[in-house]
Every structure is written in structure tokens, then in C-alpha cells.
Amino acid sequence: MATTKWAIDPTHSEIGFKVKHMMFTNVSGKFNNYEATITSNENNFENAAIEFSADIKSIDTGNLDRDNHLRSADFFDVENSPKMTFKSTSFTKIDDGNYELIGNLNIRGVEKQVKLPVEFSGIMTDPWGNTKVGLNISGKINRKDWGLNWNSALEAGGVLVSDDVRLNIELQFAKQ
């Protein structure tokens, strides 16, 4: 069976996340520089192979001081681990619009398996004749699983930064 390569369209994609701050508000961020590919059997995405990498230096929460702290050894340690990578081990169809993505996420040199729900938006042809596919990946990971342990206790109780990181990843790929 012939395989099809799909390359990410970065102008129509976003690698986003949210973390609770001070136990009651969310801080949103994203990575501005990343690469992703899918290899599928034609237009059938069952068991497609998905690979992703992000340049940690490109983290953007809208606050330079916070971004620099996230790049430091307290969090991502960009000097020693400049990239975050993901490689799928399975991509299983649940129903017409939903898949389950399982793979290995590597942050700070620590590799852990993650299981994430994926909404499959379908295959479309854009006005210029390019075949596109859309995926929305959500889910939650615990940052401490990858050694992102820094925190600060709050005087009123609780902590400054939640352990849970909620993912909001919108991806558009173009058939190559």
C-alpha cells in the first residue's frame, strides 16, 4: 500500500497549552517554532505515524520574564535540552471524528508515554488545490513527570503553578 506524507502548515496551526496560576486563573502559552509530519496509508489515518518537535526557545506566554524563567533550568533547561519531541506509537480510530494518539513525549531528556484524544476534522481541498487534513489534540499531562518541578507555595495555601498542563493543539497538514 502506498504511503502519503503530510507536512504541517504552520500558518494554520498552533501548539498551545494552559497552566493554572495561583490556583484560580489560567496562563496560556504556545511554541512559535516547531515541525510535524504524518505518514499515512493514502487518506486512511488509522495507524498513521506522527512525529513532532518544538524549539523550546520559542515558548511564548506573552511575558518575556516568565518566558525566560520557563527557558531556565527551573523548567525546560533550554541550554541542555533545546527541543521537545514526540513520536507516535499508535493512532487508533475510535469513530468517524475521533482518534486516540499514543506516543513518547521527550522533554528535558525524559521520555514518557502519553495518551491523548484527537479530534479528526477531516480532509479538504483548499481553493488552490492543496489537500489538507485537520487535527485537534487536547488532553492533560503532569509537568512533574518530565522533571519540571519548580514551584512556590502561596501564603494563603496552595501553589503558584499547577502540576497539570492542559494541551490545546490545532494542526493543519498539507499532503506532499
UniProtKB/TrEMBL annotation:
Domain Lipid/polyisoprenoid-binding YceI-like, chain residue ranges per copy: 5-174
SMART domains registered for this protein in UniProt: YceI
UniProt-listed InterPro entries: Lipid/polyisoprenoid-bd_YceI, TTHA0802/YceI-like_sf
PANTHER family in UniProt: PROTEIN YCEI (PTHR34406:SF1)
Protein name, entry field: Polyisoprenoid-binding protein
